[in-house]
Amino acid sequence: MTTALQILIAEDDVLLAQLMMLQLQQQGFQVEWVADGERAVTEALSYRYDVVLLDWQMPGLDGLQAAAMLRQLGYSRCLLLLSADKVESPLLDACLLKPFVLSDLLAVIGEHRVQHHSYSVSAELKQQFIAALAGLQRQLQQACLAGDEATIRTIVHQLKGSAASFGAAAISAEADRLQLCWQHQPIQQSQLLLLSDLIDLELNSAT
Predict the structure, then answer these.
(1) Helices then strands (H, E): number in the chain?
(2) What is the pTM for the complete model shown?
(3) Based on CB atoms within 10 Å of each CB, which residue in 50, 185, 202, 203 is the most buried?
(4) What is the CATH number of the domain that holds 63?
(5) Cα–Cα distance between 138 and 36 in angstroms, integer?
(6) 152 belongs to a structural domain
């Protein structure tokens, strides 16, 4: 009997982590979750996990910093980075792009015996996502009023990486377009109008 692969997820977005855990558990993997890089390092060094999946932008110790610390300590097992933007580093076995796609992870770890499940988001998780989305919209509005570009960028980055996983692909796509645009020009708040409209549409459709 084959032993189930042990996977550690380090992800500060609680809803996205829950969704990833559900998908991986349905494939027969044993999955644990931590919310920050410091705990990811501690758990990884227990050597209970075959694969460690690190979100890049976590508060405190981010995914790359956690990977660097683990490699410095001689950790040689599979380290994967989960990011909304492509990242290349000799510290990593691979970088997986958000929104999380299960087949991408399976391809990297060489797991080809995929069990087919319907990965529709549960009503409870969807409701929690909608509540979180409403909170992000309020934070985005406050950041715009305060001219807080760092917070605007952080929220847009988060939406790019997670919204599509919960069925809001248009929000992720627009967030991605904004990030690409801001690589070449400063933020103009008028550029956020479409994103705001898409969030409103998603929130209204849930009521």
Answers:
(1) 8, 5
(2) 0.76
(3) 202
(4) 3.40.50.2300
(5) 24
(6) yes
